[in-house]
Amino acid sequence: MKQKVVVIGHGYTSRLGVIRSVAEIGCNITVIVMTDKKRFGNNIDTTQPIDCYSKYVNSIYYCYKKDEEGLVQLLLDKCVDKDQKAILIPDSDFSASVIDKNLNRLCQDFLVPHIHHTQGEVMRWMDKGLQKNLAKSLGLNVAAACEVDIIGGKYNLPFNINYPCFPKPQITILGDKYMKRCDNEEQLRAVIEHLGSKRDNKVLVEDYKAIEEEYALLGFSDGSEVIIPGIIHFLTPSKSHFGLAMRGEIMPIEGFEDLLVKLNAFVKSVGYVGVFDIDFFKSEGIYYFGEMNLRFGGSGYAVTKMGVNLPAMMVKSFSGESIVDMNKEVTKRATFINERMCTDDWYQGFLTTEQYHRMIKDSDICFVADEQDPSPQKALEKKQKSMVFRRKVRNVLRRIH
């Protein structure tokens, strides 16, 4: 019997990476698309997301991206398998948090990423302040920071804020990605008031660090062993998606061994079981811990393409199979491209058509194009053709204004 896997997320390239990864071990795959549309159907049609054209997808469902209870009910009503516990793989903070907050309701029917099988612990460790305190205690470098609580739109600024600074939501899913350098108190108050305009919030105000290089690492932990196979180096950040790589490089861990010892200890100290992503960066020659994402990272498929299949490792481990013989080390370098980021940057006018095609040609790994699974690429090309006229109009209007 094939192991049933449910992939849940917002972006088609990150979902597609997980889909193709677990397809390598012959799973039965259901996809739940978290959409911004409040009205939709479950029928497969020409408007379905790019990843859902994959030949490996068996079932597709849709859920409004802010509907927590709707997601839980969808899982319980449509995704339970009477013959086995299906495995849930969230690839967004929202889906990971909903699963964690409803762990007691879901654990009878599903196997899920967790911390000590305790409901609420994954959500608790999404707190960047808590993560930074642990990282600092383990000898990792962190940017100095202070916390600002916004309650009912009111807040008090600590007296010890250093400028320039960089405010960000302390828990990502409680805020948005409105983050910018602030050189004075007036600019900082504007950002904080924006972050607290819709709900009570916690803001982490960090000392600003000029970033020389950005990195990420993907890994899997079974609670006792932490596997970190390689390093992802961001080469070209997306201008339409803050903090995400449009183009990057996957490489072996050589040169990062001392840092990885501390990050390995970090994951073990959290107690997380599942696939994860850790961001870090270099500033003035020093590596700084950024944050741990308790889910699969957006560039994670690059690791799979280099022969280390972390989602498959998680599925096998969760279903009681041995992962001893699975490859756990990236041994070569390769460049990768995220076509979703490229398409969005191209549509927004940040990337010319010539630049787009050159980046694709110059990259070793693509997240959508695949000879063994060509339909998603065909769907993407069809989508891009439909965007050409709208892109021209958009760029003309931008020049006028």
Task: Give a written overview of the molecule.
- With 401 residues, the protein is of the alpha/beta class.
- Strands 6, 10, 11, 12, 13, 14, 15, 16 and 17 form a nine-stranded mixed β-sheet that branches.
- The chain starts with a strand and ends with a helix.
- 42% of the residues are buried.
- About 2% of the residues have low confidence.
- The protein contains 13 helices and 17 strands.
How does the major sheet shape up?
9 strands, mixed
- What is the approximate shape? globular
Task: List the uncertain runs.
Answer: 40-46
| β-strand number | 17
- Arithmetic mean of pLDDT: 92
- Helicity level: 25-40%
Structural class designation: alpha/beta
Secondary-structure element order, N to C = EHEEHEHHEEHHEEHEEEEEHEEHHEHHEH
How many helices in DSSP terms? 13
Integer-rounded radius of gyration: 21 Å
How large is the share of residues in beta strands? Answer: 15-25%
* End-to-end gap: 59 Å
Keyword list:
401 residues; alpha/beta; 9-stranded mixed beta sheet; 5-stranded parallel beta sheet; 25% strand; globular
A few lines on this structure:
Mean pLDDT is 92; it is low at 40-46. A hairpin with a 2-residue loop joins β14 and β15 (286-293).
Give the arrangement of secondary structure elements.
Layout: E1 4-9, H1 12-23, E2 28-35, E3 57-64, H2 68-78, E4 86-90, H3 93-101, H4 103-106, E5 110-111, E6 114-115, H5 121-124, H6 128-137, E7 145-150, E8 165-169, H7 185-195, E9 201-207, E10 213-221, E11 226-227, E12 231-237, E13 245-251, H8 257-270, E14 272-283, E15 286-293, H9 301-305, H10 310-318, E16 334-337, H11 339-347, H12 353-361, E17 365-366, H13 375-400
Parallel strand pairs: 1-2, 1-4, 2-3, 4-5, 16-17
Antiparallel strand pairs: 6-14, 7-9, 8-9, 10-11, 10-12, 10-14, 12-13, 13-16, 14-15
Helix pairs in contact: 1-10
